[in-house]
């Protein structure tokens, strides 16, 4: 084939330039041609503040902070997978991320009970997050979830958890025989106090209370207003069983690992920064829920002071049962005890 000297020179330059550009791309690390799309499902329905404040807030912050790199679309319960199948579905990669509660995974991961919160443990959100961030709590729970192909991104403090329903509690014996919707450690507490714990997807709670399927429930007080639970309960019983409880933000491990290191770092920076702000909004909503309930005739009842030893005894049983689940849960409970003692919190003994 006849080739002119000028054409040959141009061809050499073109090939050299192409090789230079290819080498540059190969040395530049991962390149996103387009933003990654994730699907995220929330365990809690629209109207519930865990959905309206926490889940929506997380997605908004991440989508804004990682624009062009990651786009998360939020779904309500059942829109991708039934609520009771969310954990296994996330593990298998049916979807990419979830906002749930650690107690929802407790049958598979016993350590999740501690991550949810034990009765009479941390006393505020600051202590809660400090345990995870600075005392090894987060690393510990991440290892447990990783065994199931799930990345535990971060705990999400939400609400105080009182017992609310159609009965008042002046003494612990008032719980005996009562059917109470509860999860994880709160279910253990109800059982230890003589009640009958029940559990089903949260979106069915309103009708369960209205129809008398349950006598009460252990839940966020914000939803007395937003989910209209004040219409179907008569009493809010204090002190709360847990304050505050943790929900969680978790991801499919394969989806997580596909994100470049710099995106992962930015992802976690955003989550850790926004979490305290979301909790502050939730705490305000909790008080608004109580105020609204009182305006609708719901009564606030306080446990008799003389009954506190019985509440402590029920809490201690939960701690002991949780520690007895496995070597890992025993280690996790011990880690929490040491942290709380260092913080001057009196723990059930």
Q: What top-tier CATH class of the largest domain fits best? A: Alpha Beta
> Gyration radius, to the nearest Å?
25 Å
CATH level-3 fold name of the largest domain: D-Maltodextrin-Binding Protein, domain 2
Shape: globular
- Find the structural class using helix and strand composition: alpha/beta
Q: Element order, helices and strands?
A: HEHEHEHHHEEEHEHEHEEHHEHH
Largest sheet, in brief, is: 6 strands, mixed
Distance, first to last CA? 92 Å
Q: What is the percent of helical residues?
A: 40-55%
- CATH homologous superfamily of the largest domain? Bacterial extracellular solute-binding protein, family 7
Mean pLDDT: 90
Poorly predicted residue ranges? 1-33
Strand runs, count: 11
Structure description:
The structure is a single chain. The protein has 349 residues and is α/β, with parallel strands linked by helices. It has two domains: 163 residues, D-Maltodextrin-Binding Protein, domain 2, CATH 3.40.190.170; 125 residues, D-Maltodextrin-Binding Protein, domain 2 (3-Layer(aba) Sandwich). Helices cover 47% and strands 17% of the residues. It contains 13 helices and eleven strands. The protein has a six-stranded mixed beta sheet with strand order 7-6-8-5-9-11, sandwiched between helices. A five-stranded mixed beta sheet has the order 2-1-3-10-4. Helix 2 runs antiparallel to helix 11 and helix 7 packs across helix 12. The longest helix is centred in the last third of the chain and has 35 residues. The protein starts with a helix and ends in a 7-residue tail after the last helix. The N terminus is likely disordered.
């Amino acid at each position: 084939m006849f080739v002119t000297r000028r054409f040959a020179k141009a061809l050499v330059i073109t090939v050299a330039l192409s090789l230079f550009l290819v080498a540059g791309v190969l040395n530049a690390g991962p390149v996103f041609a387009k933003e990654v799309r994730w699907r995220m499902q929330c365990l809690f329905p629209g109207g519930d503040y865990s959905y309206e404040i926490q889940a929506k807030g997380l997605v908004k912050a991440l989508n804004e902070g990682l624009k062009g790199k990651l786009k998360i679309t939020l779904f309500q319960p059942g829109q991708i997978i039934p609520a009771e199948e969310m954990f296994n579905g996330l593990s298998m990669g049916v979807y990419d991320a979830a906002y749930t509660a650690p107690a929802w995974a407790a049958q598979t991961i016993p350590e999740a009970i501690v991550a949810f919160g034990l009765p009479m443990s941390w006393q505020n959100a600051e202590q809660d997050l400090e345990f995870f961030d600075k005392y090894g709590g987060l690393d510990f729970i991440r290892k447990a979830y990783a065994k199931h192909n799930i990345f535990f991104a971060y705990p999400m403090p939400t609400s105080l958890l009182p017992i609310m329903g159609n009965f008042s509690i002046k003494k612990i014996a008032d719980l005996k025989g009562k059917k109470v919707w509860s999860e994880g450690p709160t279910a253990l507490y109800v059982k230890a106090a003589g009640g009958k714990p029940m559990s089903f997807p949260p979106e069915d709670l309103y009708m369960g209370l209205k129809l008398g399927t349950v006598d009460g429930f252990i839940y966020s007080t914000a939803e007395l207003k937003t989910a209209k639970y004040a219409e179907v309960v008569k009493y809010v019983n204090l002190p709360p069983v847990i304050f505050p409880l943790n929900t969680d933000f978790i991801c499919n491990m394969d989806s997580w690992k596909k994100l470049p290191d710099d995106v992962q770092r930015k992802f976690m920076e955003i989550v850790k920064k926004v979490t305290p702000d979301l909790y502050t909004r939730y705490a305000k909503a909790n008080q608004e829920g109580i105020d609204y309930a009182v305006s609708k005739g719901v009564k606030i009842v306080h446990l008799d002071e003389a009954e506190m030893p019985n509440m402590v005894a029920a809490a201690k049983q939960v701690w002991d049962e949780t520690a007895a689940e496995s070597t890992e849960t025993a280690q996790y409970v011990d880690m929490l005890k040491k942290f709380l003692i260092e913080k001057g919190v009196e723990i059930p003994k």
